[in-house]
Amino acid sequence: MSFKSSVAALAAIVIAAPVTFASVAEAAGCGRASWYALTSRTASGERMNPAKLTAAHKSLRFGTKVKVTNSNNGKSVVVRINDRGPFIRGRVLDLSKAAASEIGMIGAGHAKVCYQIVG
């Protein structure tokens, strides 16, 4: 394959892939996460259940599955986005109490995490 045809093939792939900068930025990230254990209604309309593996994110679609890894201990959990938040600067996720427990951050109340969309 020549250089010219390789460049043309790459250009076709880039043009065909409808990815926006915002969606790429939202698909993965690192920052601080906190947890909450309310039983009020979430922004998606369902009741918050602290025993389920769920989380709040500012803009990911409801139902999105996200793998969250605690940077301090390497523990991970997969959560489903069902709420909006957190609304504290520097925080990227609010986890349910069950999810926070899975990655060992209950005692501290917050932790540095990295997350990525799965499935």
TrEMBL record:
It holds the Pfam family DPBB_1. Its EC number is 4.2.2.-. Keywords: Cell wall biogenesis/degradation, Lyase, Signal. Residues 1-27 form the signal peptide. It is an enzyme of class 4 (lyase). Residues 30-115 form the RlpA-like protein double-psi beta-barrel domain. Lytic transglycosylase with a strong preference for naked glycan strands that lack stem peptides. Belongs to the RlpA family. This is Endolytic peptidoglycan transglycosylase RlpA. It comes from Mycoplana ramosa (Mycoplana bullata). The gene is rlpA.
